[in-house]
């Protein structure tokens, strides 16, 4: 192996490590919308050079988690109320389509994993852990969608709304968490039966309810930096 190949492999590994760190920090709300990401600070914190940080930021921009402009750096995108409403309307239409493409190929093993995730969701009381499990649950239902442009858009839309889903779960509190669980159980029932129509209807209503609830809380859009 040449020195160039070795350096390239090391650079790629470092970029993936930086990307994983930033991705988790953004999804967990540690880096909120509107926050500027300074390459020098991240490089120093992680003991990396700036090149892997730049490469990591390009990855995250492709995933919808950051934005970049020449000479302006990178930051976590912040959505206004109207933008968020439109993004959720996009989700209401595209995610049932991704589910319809995926559902016929969800085998018993995947369904068992979905059931285990839902049991974990119902036992959980921590918002951060709920968001992680909920994301895993829904993205698993789309995991057999073989239309890459659709699957990629769905993940990017999830990434761009993560902060606001956290705000939604904080707003509704544990006393109304049963609604989320009831909708998940209805969705699971439709998946078990292989009913694309029922699954799509449940999913669309599930997403719409979050959108409507968020529209009643404009303070969310002035509290994130």
Shape: globular
- Based on the structure given, which CATH architecture of the largest domain is correct? Up-down Bundle
Strand order of the largest sheet: 1-3-2
- CATH class term of the largest domain: Mainly Alpha
Count of discrete structural domains: 2
User: Main β-sheet, in a few words?
Assistant: 3 strands, antiparallel
The whole-number mean of residue pLDDT values reads 90
What is the CATH topology assignment of the largest domain? Four Helix Bundle (Hemerythrin (Met), subunit A)
Question: What topology emerges from the helices and strands here?
Answer:
Blueprint: H1 3-27, E1 36-37, H2 39-46, H3 50-62, E2 67-69, E3 73-75, H4 81-102, H5 108-123, H6 127-141, H7 148-172, H8 177-193, H9 196-215
Antiparallel strand pairs: 1-3, 2-3
Helix pairs in contact: 1-3, 2-3, 4-7, 4-9, 5-6, 5-8, 6-7, 8-9
What features would you describe in this structure?
The protein is mostly helical and 225 residues long. A hairpin with a 3-residue loop joins strand 2 and strand 3. The longest helix has 25 residues, at 3-27. It has a three-stranded antiparallel sheet with strand order 1-3-2. 72% of the residues lie in helices and 4% in strands. The model is unreliable at 1-10 (pLDDT under 50).
């Amino acid at each position: 192996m040449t020195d160039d190949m070795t350096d390239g492999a090391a650079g790629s590994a470092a970029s993936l490590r930086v990307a994983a760190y930033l991705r988790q920090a953004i999804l967990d709300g540690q880096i909120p919308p509107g926050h500027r990401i300074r390459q020098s600070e991240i490089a120093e914190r992680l003991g990396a050079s700036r090149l892997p940080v730049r490469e990591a930021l390009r990855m995250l921009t492709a995933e919808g988690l950051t934005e970049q402009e020449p000479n302006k750096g990178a930051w976590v995108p912040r959505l206004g109320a109207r933008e968020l409403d439109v993004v959720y309307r996009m989700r209401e239409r595209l995610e049932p389509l991704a589910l319809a493409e995926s559902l016929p190929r969800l085998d018993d093993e995947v369904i068992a994993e979905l059931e285990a995730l839902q049991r974990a969701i119902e036992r959980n009381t921590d918002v951060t852990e709920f968001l992680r499990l909920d994301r895993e649950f829904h993205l698993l239902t789309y995991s057999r969608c073989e239309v890459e442009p659709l699957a990629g858009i769905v993940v990017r839309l999830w990434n761009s709304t993560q902060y606001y889903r956290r705000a939604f779960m904080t707003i509704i509190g544990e006393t109304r968490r049963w609604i989320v669980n009831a909708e998940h159980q209805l969705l699971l029932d439709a998946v078990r039966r292989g009913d694309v129509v029922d699954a799509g209807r449940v999913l669309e209503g599930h997403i719409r309810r979050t959108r409507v609830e968020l529209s009643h809380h404009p303070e969310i859009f002035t509290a994130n930096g």
